Amino acid sequence: MDEKEIWSKAKEELAQTVPTYKMWIEPLEAVSFDGNILTLITAHALAPQAIKSQHNTKILEALKHSAGQDISYNIIFDEEFAERYRREKKKELQKTKNTDNSDKMLDNLAQMQSSANLNLKYKFSNFVVGENNRFAHAAALAVAQSPAKKYNPLFIYGASGLGKTHLMQAIGHYIVFNKPKLKVKYIKTEEYYNEYIKNLQTGGNDKTNRMDKFRQKYRNVDVLLIDDIQFIESKTRTMEEIFHTFDSLHNNNKQIVITSDRLPKDIPTLPDRLRTRFEMGLMVDIMPPEFETRVAILKNLAQNANVKTDQDVLEYIAENFINNVRELEGAFNKVSAYADIEKSDLTLAFAKRVLNCESRKSEISIEDVAKSAGEYFGVTVNDFKSSARNQRVSSARHIAVYLSREITGRSFESIAEYFNKKHTTMLYSYDKIKNDLKVNKKLENTVSEIKRMINHV
Ligand code: ADP
Ligand code: MG
User: Fold this and answer.
1) 339 and 273, same structural domain?
2) Cβ < 6 A, ligand 1 pocket
3) pLDDT value for 100
4) How far is CA 385 from the centre of its chain?
5) Is the domain of 157 the same as that of 279?
6) Are residues 36 and 135 in the same domain?
7) 364: confidence class by pLDDT, cuts 50, 70, 90
């Protein structure tokens, strides 16, 4: 079930059980469901607290019935949603005064946002900027402010869970909100593929018509956001279709934004003519966030969800979930949901109890990583620290450096100090493995095997 289904079913029950339903519950909008936690947004700044303190039990009950299992929920106050709400209310008022024009005036943002296929959770205002994403963020903002003028296409790449979809949709929201005349469309490549294939395979007299309609839907826009393009790998016909859509848009000076988990040149089956097109604008990457940015992201989450907690809790989570913002967020949602259900304060001890079993990254040192990597390759820690350059030691060292950074989250300076090398050498090793991993399955297995060894020391 997705968030909309769960919430609309739960609402039916809440309409019966909560007397102030119309005021508090009805205006909430469901924006995400991650298997455990439903996120709702409100246009009313006081609602998160008011609703949780008055209707918590009833909401949990209704959600349980609707989802068929115990799930938790967050209510987040959302500025943009509030603004939209105010505008709609105002329009409604005008509408009743001036019924003749009512239809013309119904160009409401809500409709535009949903026809653009955007999720209100992803906006610039809740995207935390750090060294890892500074450039990508600046480029995205520039594109949002002047679509089709600056970087076209904008190609955002980086590993999973680092904020590509978030940034891309933030561009969409910005444009819908600030340039309502422009038509925006967001599409996941996988959904685009499914839709295309479905149209292609269904027969009937109106097939040509249908294909035309499908094409128009994506060519008749001012801003097209294509998420996770790496999915088209080896889907030749879809590539062909995207190719023509790309050209049609680009030639008409329309903005295209693309995300991918890797660079175009690292999608081996991508034909040159598509690759060169993807590369002709600006390509920006997003890296895993540093410690400081992770703490800032958590702080932002806590604030938006109105969760009271201390700095040491946020730092504990940030130390333990280092690779991926999605997991970082998941850990935070988990502790806050547990605290909520158990009616406990979110203290460090509480967070440790809830999360401890999942991770002990902060306790692992660079030395632990180096030892396990050394053991795997039959190389000693002293070899790593020496200036030995033979193939076996160097390639083992690259991996040890990469894992040191990934697993301990320590700075490149500390890692350089341990390996007795220059800071830039460490950066080189890290990037090398990071990039190789995107195309080298065997390397991926090696890295997972060493990770397993480290976790079982
Ligand atoms: P990707 O598309 O790269 O796999 P997402 O955009 O889906 O990643 O991000 C995963 C989760 O992390 C989302 O909930 C997103 O809101 C959050 N997130 C990622 N980066 C940031 C950031 N810099 N600030 C705030 N939230 C972030
Ligand atoms: Mg994504």
Assistant:
1) no
2) 122, 126-128, 133, 158, 160-166, 297, 325-326, 329
3) 44
4) 38
5) yes
6) no
7) confident
